[in-house]
Structure formats: structure tokens, C-alpha cells
Design a protein that fits this description.
It is built from four helices and six strands. It has about 120 residues and is an alpha/beta fold. A six-stranded mixed β-sheet has the order 1-4-3-2-5-6. Strand 5, helix 3 and strand 6 form a beta-alpha-beta unit. About 20% of the residues are buried. The mean pLDDT is about 85.
């Protein structure tokens, strides 16, 4: 991995727009969300963690209210999104955009598939 550069906490629309452009150019990135769903009808998004080969970033959705640039990249069919146990993250994406990303690689599903296809168990 190369050295990490750039903002690590995204709190403004300008920072988010710049990050979205970088994510689109990277063509692959991972993300995970943190949210509160107890006592709410819909989950309240509290944090988005993003990783590329060059950068680790936290997006504060309580500061940057309009996350459209981020969700547009997530749903861009030319970009691969890497996730772990993606169900709830995909639900939030669907709630935010009305659509789901087309190119998702879920590492938990890949691991489960590999384990079930491999006769040797650890």
C-alpha cells in the first residue's frame, strides 16, 4: 500500500465532491456505514468509512447532509464497490437513492462461497 494522503475527515460539500471524483477515477473502493436504527423507522446514517488503495477517509453525514455525489459513485456501473456483509449498507443506499449499485463485491459472501466450495475446512 502506498502512503495515504489527503483529508481524512470529510465535513463539507466541496470535500465530498473532490472525494467523489477521486473514487470515480479509482474505479474500485470499499466502504462501510455506521448508523443508528434502534427506535427509528429508517436508519440514521452517522458515518461512512471509505478506502481506496491510496486513501482512508471518513465522511460525516451529519455535517455533509447532501451525500448525492458519494451515492452517485456507489451506483456508477463503471465502479466496483467492495463491501463486507453488505445487506444493511445496500439498504441505506437504496433508501438514499432509490437504486442499488450494480458492481458489488461482498467479501463475506466470497468467503462463504469459497469455504462451501472447498472440501478442506480450517
Amino acid at each position: 500500500m502506498t502512503s495515504m494522503t489527503g483529508e481524512t475527515l470529510i465535513t463539507t460539500p466541496a470535500q465530498l465532491a473532490a472525494l467523489a471524483e477521486q473514487l470515480r477515477l479509482s474505479r474500485r473502493f470499499g466502504f462501510d456505514t455506521e448508523f443508528v436504527s434502534e427506535e427509528t423507522f429508517e436508519p440514521v446514517l452517522c458515518l461512512i468509512q471509505v478506502a481506496t488503495r491510496e486513501r482512508l477517509v471518513l465522511i460525516d453525514p451529519l455535517s455533509v447532509r447532501d451525500l448525492t455525489p458519494f451515492w452517485e459513485v456507489v451506483c456508477d456501473p463503471s465502479v466496483q464497490v467492495v463491501m463486507h456483509a453488505a445487506g444493511e449498507d445496500l439498504r441505506i443506499c437504496l433508501l438514499q437513492t432509490g437504486k442499488l449499485p450494480r458492481r458489488v463485491f461482498d467479501v463475506q459472501m466470497a468467503r462463504d462461497w469459497w469455504v462451501s466450495a472447498t472440501p478442506f475446512r480450517w
